[in-house]
Design brief:
Strand 4 and strand 5 form a beta hairpin. The chain is about 50% helix and about 10% strand. It has about 220 residues and is mostly helical. The structure holds iron/sulfur cluster.
Length: about 220
């Protein structure tokens, strides 16, 4: 049992903290889903598909990204199709696969709930600017670790993108460069889920991460 003289490890207490935040985020997800007439998994599928129109994205990808079983993903996809929020077309690379894309009605529903406030947003707003940046960098590092150990799919983050050139500029406020839009940007602008992301090969990702490390 934890006492002041015998605390749990910091690893354990950080995970306890993340679990409390995850609880608040689940409340947000249920509230948003209720407002959209969907359940949280269905709403998460709409959010995942947004901005992926040009890529092949099927049931297996949805299940892997949301951490749910393929039957659960299939049920939710079928429900969204019945509601007119997504459309299935045959895959262009593999005709046996289905490609999923949001309909205009699906996009409108998603945007209608995205503007709403939530507990998690309030918690992030409670941090000052430096604390927010430190947290963003810590999250990037943790997410990258999970994807590089194949625990989760590669996310659309700058640090895994072929367009990302870390510390390409001497300006400490805008040290990074995005070759997709040919513009510099700062640590605070690092993306977690960028629709223009194009995944770099593993060797390039490793080299980018090395260059991204402080010092
Ligand atoms: S395209 Fe997006 S993910 Fe890639 S470097 Fe630019 S901002 Fe980052």
């Amino acid at each position: 049992m934890e006492t002041p003289k015998n605390p749990l490890s910091i690893n354990c207490r950080i995970r306890e903290g993340l679990a409390r935040l995850a609880m608040a985020m689940r409340v947000d997800e249920w509230n948003k889903a209720k407002a959209s007439g969907l359940n949280p998994t269905q709403l998460a599928i709409l959010a995942l598909l947004e901005g992926r129109g040009q890529h092949e994205f099927g049931v297996k990808d949805i299940a892997a990204h949301l951490g749910v079983s393929q039957p659960t993903a299939t049920d939710s996809i079928n429900a969204l199709e019945r509601k007119g929020y997504l459309a299935k077309t045959p895959g262009q690379l593999d005709r046996r696969a289905v490609r999923l894309a949001l309909t205009p009605e699906g996009i409108a529903n998603l945007h209608a709930v995205e503007t709403s406030d939530g507990l998690a947003r309030q918690a992030v707003d409670a941090l000052d600017a430096d604390e927010q940046q430190d947290l963003l960098l810590a999250l990037v590092k943790m997410i990258r670790h999970l994807q590089e150990t194949d625990a989760i799919p590669v996310q659309r983050m700058c640090v895994t993108c072929r367009y990302f050139a870390p510390f390409a500029h001497s300006d400490s406020a805008q040290p990074h460069h995005c070759n997709f839009v040919d513009a510099s940007f700062g640590q605070r602008e690092l993306r977690i889920d960028c629709r223009d992301h194009d995944q770099a090969d593993p060797a390039s990702r490793a080299a980018t991460w090395e260059a991204f490390q402080p010092g």
